[in-house]
Amino acid sequence: MKPAKGRVIAAYGRQFAVEMDGKIHSCIRRGRNGDVVVGDWVEVDNDVIESIEPRSSLFYRSDAYREKRIASNLTRIIVVLAGVPTFSEELLNHCLIAAEDQGLKSLILLNKADMMEPTRIALDTLDLYRHLGYEVVPISAKEDVSPLLPFLENETSVLVGQSGMGKSTLINALIPDAKRETAEISSALDSGRHTTTHARLFHLSEKSHIIDSPGLQEFGLNHLGLDRLAKAFPEFRPGLGHCRFRNCRHIDEPGCALADAVASGKVSEKRMMIYRKLARTLISRNSGKGRATNR
Ligand SMILES: Nc1nc2c(ncn2[C@@H]2O[C@H](COP(=O)(O)OP(=O)(O)O)[C@@H](O)[C@H]2O)c(=O)[nH]1
Ligand SMILES: [Mg+2]
Ligand SMILES: [Zn+2]
């Protein structure tokens, strides 16, 4: 068989489900550990992934020690939240920052809108993000997912969020065959013993795809440097380059244009606190280990 091009739609440990001409092949990657990610276009020869095409984007998080790649070649991040259980606003911010950094569109999906009072409270909290330009869409995965559909068209989207927010319910409503398809892939890969703790790509149409990802508890951003971090806050951008010090970290420096923006109400205190907490983490990691955070 000669080499063929395909797309990675699921990963189970060192085995990958690669879709080629509508068929799913169980493939391996020799030697290189962990470089293939769901969403990748790859060249396959005899069920071995030989090479990965250049990616248009790579959505990943990182904790203190390692990177966790979530998916590649995306165009949109959908952060799934709900009024119950209470969502982490910090996690929401980290997802939005990672999306901005990779130039991806975001959508904040507030699920369980059938629960009126928790939804009202959550919408109040989300007002800040609406004012920043992020779209906030209330939805009930149990009742009607149609408000989400226009946002999925011609996009490769990934659903991210804490567990319990309703990601699986959404996927099942969007793709009635999701469970069966996933079971088929598991058996094709002989990985029935693995739970689906990995991302999985589903087709909505020829041009629209959606990736379900495992529930997140945290979303580290240690892979960003200070410059990239500040640029990932859209409301910071007008102030960047206007601080007294060219290398201002926007933490406690005099003449900081972003501190002025907070004082005049152009930037919210909450967002500034989120930035500073992340910036301090980056700085202490850097000085402690003496290595650059920018990749
Ligand atoms: N009331 C309500 N409950 C929902 C909705 N969507 C999901 N749930 C419930 O929320 C819980 C978590 O859903 P699940 O899809 O497993 O969340 P996941 O962990 O994000 O995949 C389940 O008990 C669902 O029945 C919704 O739109 N409204
Ligand atoms: Mg789930
Ligand atoms: Zn500054």
Question: What this model shows, in words?
Answer:
The protein is an alpha/beta fold and 295 residues long. The protein folds into three domains: 4-52, SH3 type barrels, CATH 2.30.30; 58-212, Rossmann fold, CATH 3.40.50; 226-289, Probable gtpase engc, domain 3 (Ribonucleotide Reductase Protein R1, domain 1), CATH 1.10.40. 29% of the residues lie in helices and 24% in strands. It has helices at 89-101, 116-131, 149-152, 167-174, 178-188, 226-231, 257-263, 269-289, and strands at residues 4-12, 15-20, 23-28, 41-45, 48-52, 58-62, 67-72, 76-82, 105-111, 136-138, 156-160, 200-203, 209-212. The strands form three sheets. It has a six-stranded mixed sheet, with helices on both faces. The chain has a five-stranded antiparallel sheet with strand order 3-2-1-4-5, with no helix packed on it. Strands 6-7 form a two-stranded antiparallel ribbon. The two termini are 38 Å apart. Bound molecules: guanosine-5'-diphosphate (GDP), magnesium ion (MG) and zinc ion. Zinc ion binds next to α7.
Question: What would a concise description of this structure say?
Answer:
The chain has 295 residues and is an alpha/beta fold. It is built from eight helices and 13 strands.
Strand and helix map with partners:
Layout: E1 4-12, E2 15-20, E3 23-28, E4 41-45, E5 48-52, E6 58-62, E7 67-72, E8 76-82, H1 89-101, E9 105-111, H2 116-131, E10 136-138, H3 149-152, E11 156-160, H4 167-174, H5 178-188, E12 200-203, E13 209-212, H6 226-231, H7 257-263, H8 269-289
The protein binds guanosine-5'-diphosphate (GDP), magnesium ion and zinc ion.
